[in-house]
Please model this.
Amino acid sequence: MRVYLLCFVALWCLAQNVSVAADTTESDLSETARLLAILLDSGRVAIGRNQALINDPSNAQTAFTPEFFAA
Model:
């Protein structure tokens, strides 16, 4: 859950940064794209390393219950 929250906050910050800057240069956009790709890759690695834990139905700590998604 923390990984998703971190990714969301980072994406939101990047989106705010890109939308506010009116005179963004091509190099700024390329750097933002590069950093975003690194962020997404990091999230995939974190999820991949913990996939067994995420898929384990006996682990109640994941909080992925039907009630969680119904809210």
Q: What stands out?
A: The two ends are 16 Å apart (CA to CA). Residues 54 and 64 are 9 Å apart (CA to CA).
